[in-house]
């Protein structure tokens, strides 16, 4: 029996809500697992994977999910509050990423190792720099009058699009980190594949959220 349009819409919203709930669990569960593996404080290096997991798995994911109509933890709050929390989480993510980058750079210096010679290192550096630029670009949304030739709607669209690119870069950096000798020595077999699925799941949820927001804006213009 064919599904009605209303039933399909309800089913789609339910699936999105379930995927969003899973993304929340993964966003928190992945850094928790990394913390158990790294044992922060056991070495200088141990802080690097934890800080990067916190930045790009937990903080940045939650900062973007705040605007999800189905899974936001602040659905009952005004958009102004959501924007402020988004800003706070993004700044915390950037600080964690900068600290994580500084720690791994200093650790390599102490051990006489070359800097940024792997795909993980290069992607991580690019991601942190991009995140810094994205945060700086977000200032334009707070003060749109600085861009006189751009409408607020266009600024929001470009910020969301470039933010998605930055988030995908962060997920790629995490996945490359899981290919490192440190991670593969601790996580093997099925557990490794499950770990790789974590950033894949959250990136798919965020991409769906951004694409739906884009389609909504397009429809509202007609």
From TrEMBL:
Topology class, membrane: Multi-pass membrane protein
Keyword Iron: yes
Residue ranges constituting the Cytochrome b561 domain according to the UniProt record: 12-217
Gene Ontology CC entries for this record: endoplasmic reticulum; membrane
Enzyme class: translocase
Transmembrane portions of the chain: 17-38, 44-67, 87-106, 118-143, 164-186, 192-216
Matching Pfam families: Cytochrom_B561
Keyword Transmembrane helix attached: yes
Required cofactor(s): heme b
Location (main, coarse): membrane
UniProt-annotated location(s): Membrane
Enzyme Commission number(s): 7.2.1.3
PROSITE patterns: CYTOCHROME_B561
Gene Ontology molecular function, alphabetical: metal ion binding; transmembrane ascorbate ferrireductase activity; transmembrane monodehydroascorbate reductase activity
InterPro entries reported for this sequence: CYB561D1/2, Cyt_b561/ferric_Rdtase_TM
UniProt keyword annotations, A-Z: Electron transport, Heme, Iron, Membrane, Metal-binding, Transmembrane, Transmembrane helix, Transport
Annotated protein name in UniProt: ascorbate ferrireductase (transmembrane)
UniProt source species: Calonectris borealis
Gene this protein is translated from: Cyb561d2
